[in-house]
Fold:
Amino acid sequence: MSADPGKTVAIVQARLGSERLAGKVLAEVRGKPLLGYLLDQLSHARSLDAVAVAIPEGPQDEPIAAYCQSRGIPCIGGPEDDVLTRYAVAAEICKADTVLRITADCPLLDPGTVDRNVAGHFASGR
Structure:
């Protein structure tokens, strides 16, 4: 019998301040923000215990926080210029033992791929 891997959390890094396409994570396609498609895909991943969104602190990204709140998804703010600290803060707040790092600009992420990667991580014994 294998040891309990603890809580596995997908943390999605999202921000509206993209230099190439500002606001893309909340851009709508067929009436739904791209972030919504990603969150829907992650909800089908059987290997995840939770999903959270990490955003830069500040008013510019409050629309992301509001969208997450409307969906019941935790949204955690952290330093604008330090993505790693945003992930660390979100992981601590979510009490994550294992973190799957996801970027918000991949709305078509396959939940099966998520499950295979998580399983591969645990099978590696790391």
Observations:
- The longest strand covers residues 50-56.
